[in-house]
Amino acid sequence: MYLSYKTLQELIAKSKRVSPRELAELLTMSVMEVESVKSEAEKFDNMVVGLVTEVSGHPNADKLKLAKVDIGSKKVEIVCGGVNLVEGMKVAMALPGAMVRWHGEGEFAPLESAPIRGVKSNGMACAAAELGLSDSHALEYGIMDLSYLKAKPGVPLADALGKDDLVIEVDNKSITHRPDLWGHLGVARELAALWGTELKMPDLADLEIGNKGLKVAIKNSDLCSRYLSVVLSGIKIGPSPDWLKNKVEALGMRSINNIIDAANYVMLEIGQPLHTFDLQKLASPEIIVRQAKSGETIKTLDGVVRKLSSDMLVIADAKGPIALAGVMGGQSSEVSSDTTSLIVESATFDAINIRQTAMNFGLRSEASARFEKALDPNMAEIGIKRFVAVMQEINKSIKVESDLIDAYPKSPKAVVIEVSASWINERLGTQIKGSEIKSILESLGFNVIARSEATKQSQEIAAHLGKLGARNDN
After folding, report:
1. 156 and 179 assigned to the same domain
2. What are the φ/ψ torsions at residue 86 (nearest 5 degrees)?
3. Under 8 Å between Cβ of 330 and 299
4. pLDDT tens digits for 39-71?
5. CA 7 to CA 268: how far, in whole Å?
6. What is the pTM of this model?
7. Taking CA atoms, which of 159, 221, 336, 460 is between 20 and 30 Å from 36?
8. How many structural domains comprise the chain?
9. Structural domain containing residue 20
């Protein structure tokens, strides 16, 4: 799993500025095993924003151009084949020493000053693919046009594009028992506790729980303990804004469109997977969470028709399955460029059932990996409210057309464990005061109630920690 240092900082009230090595050591010794911390900006070394000041024809090649480019400290002359290169255009300038892929193909190799058809080129105005950027950064003719940026000539390209994050790679095996750590929010909670500061919740939409505008029916509450849904209108499918693209791409996911990127971002930030359905493609505004009928089929988003068995959980409308619950959506309800209204799903599914279905079809995904860890049902509500807030930030014209439907047939009872400061200290080999233990536990989300002035205290288990339900006296 990958974590964004920027996102962690955003979720901590008073975050400490530490070096990548210090952060990796702190997380490894206290929370999870960190495999590496890498700077996003490294792959953009020797690359800057350039301003094209002059363009002329190449004396020895009709399809090539000569251009003078202002890179801040000086002007350099380059040879370029981009047909969209014009004076006044800002470009991504790779200078000698930069690692690029020629024409977006092959391995990255260092750029050198070299003659091209008899004229020396001292750099390269790059296409997105030549820098390893996604297609969302490319233009019809290839050369990246950065004229929309306010960045001045000479500004490092990583800074101008917002590609300056630190990416932390975590060993997934070290967090298999911690469902709360499969999102930035849980890791930020741990860091805030370690640094003695507070967790800063991201913006959440103010949604009213009710039953207007949409119906949800859960047929098996053992396999789906909670299902939240809401209808959004005013949807316009398109590219994501740069900040959102940068967030998902930094964490190893491909930017697809504003809806999918927003859902993926919330999953990575909060740890709660989401799914969206095109409302107009459903038989009616009604969601049915049920077990599949034996022999029933669904064509999933990857175009494969899959035969279902009765032990699999599906999301259905009145006509039939529209998604494999927690694993993959169906093509019949897929969001497309024509989508104008969405039904948003945020649910809590049975961990074992999701794992069995995913393994049966060989469809392990970022979403199923999280559901398999037994997610906290409370995160489903936070996740859907966060998604709506992100969508409203992206598109101010989006409207909430229904109540927040919260089907929650089996709300779990709080688990209470009684411990004492002496019991904790005996097992840790420490001498921590009861008041400090109380403060630490509260910072991690526990509801701690002191039973007396002595060392005993009751703790209501923090739900985000998963199935933690008994004191271990071994």
Report:
1. no
2. -140, 160
3. yes
4. 999 999 999 999 999 999 999 998 899 999 999
5. 10
6. 0.88
7. 159
8. 4
9. 2-33+171-195
